[in-house]
């Protein structure tokens, strides 16, 4: 839960305004104190979510960093090899 913070107790989070991420329920509303506890309880189950949700980034950072600040001479094939290696496939 990247956006968990104590301020959820008393203020509506920005991530509930406007268009929401695809994995944020359109029916979720902010209620003082209640939303804080809902999100806090979600933390307990955060390891059960698929990669790409919560703090389960999986190998997404490998591909992101390779695009943002690749080492000199780094190629897309290097990224593919690194991802395969980290997944345990030679």
UniProtKB/TrEMBL annotation:
- Which positions fall inside the Alpha/beta-hydrolase catalytic domain? 1-82
One Pfam match, given by its short name, reads Abhydrolase_9
Matches recorded under InterPro entries? Alpha/beta-hydrolase_catalytic
The organism's superkingdom is given as Bacteria
Protein name stated in the entry: Alpha/beta-hydrolase catalytic domain-containing protein
């Amino acid at each position: 839960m990247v956006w968990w913070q104590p301020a959820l107790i008393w203020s509506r989070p920005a991530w509930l305004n406007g268009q929401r991420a695809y994995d944020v329920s359109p029916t979720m509303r902010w209620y003082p104190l209640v939303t804080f506890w809902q999100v806090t309880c979600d933390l307990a189950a955060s390891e059960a979510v698929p990669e790409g949700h919560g703090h389960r980034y999986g190998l997404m950072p490998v591909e992101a960093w390779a695009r943002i600040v690749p080492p000199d001479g780094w190629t897309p094939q290097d990224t593919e090899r690194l991802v395969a290696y980290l997944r345990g496939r030679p």
